[in-house]
Write a structure and sequence with these properties.
By secondary structure, the chain is mainly α. The protein is built from three helices and no strands. α2 packs antiparallel against α3. It is rod-shaped, with a radius of gyration of 63 Å.
Length: 167
């Protein structure tokens, strides 16, 4: 074999020495360079993976927040429509109450005016009745001087009764 190395121009002692040097260099590089380099690469790979996971989580949270925002807006709109509807109903109820109160007040004033007119009418009727009694009494007194007081009263009462029945 050494002849074969010699024919190829390789010194086998030098070759073994280089092979041993290469193995030592390989073990040294493996211990001091390769492992730290692999560790740094793995650490970098982990950071990238964590960054991607964090980005996915952030996207998911953003989507959840958007969904919650839409849900909250929908609820707020629904609540505002409900409040507006309740306000309309209260306004309509208040309007109806005011209209009813006004109608009651108008009816009361109408009844009061009616009673006042009736009272004035009765007072006027009584005054007119007294005036008519006086006129009849004076007229009958001049026409019938021969009648006694009872007949005179009966004549006045008959005239009053005729007047009331004509009413």
């Amino acid at each position: 074999m050494s002849e074969m190395f010699t024919k190829l121009g390789i010194d086998w002692k030098l070759f073994i020495a280089q092979l041993i040097n290469f193995m030592i260099l390989f073990l040294v590089l493996r211990a001091f360079a390769w492992k730290p380099l692999l560790g740094a690469l793995n650490e970098r790979r982990q950071k990238i993976s964590d960054g991607i996971d964090n980005a996915k989580n952030a996207d998911e949270k953003l989507m959840q927040i958007e969904e919650e925002k839409e849900k909250t807006l929908t609820e707020a709109r629904s609540e505002s429509y409900k409040i507006i509807e309740e306000a309309k109903q209260k306004a309509n109820k208040l309007k109806e109450e005011k209209i009813h109160a006004t109608q009651v007040e108008i009816e009361q004033k109408f009844d009061e005016a009616k009673e006042q007119i009736q009272g004035e009418r009765n007072a006027t009727y009584s005054a007119l009745k007294q005036d008519i009694v006086k006129l009849i009494s004076a007229a009958t007194g001049k026409l019938v001087k021969d009648l006694d007081d009872k007949a005179h009263e009966k004549l006045i009462q008959d005239a009053i009764n005729d007047l009331e029945s004509a009413k």
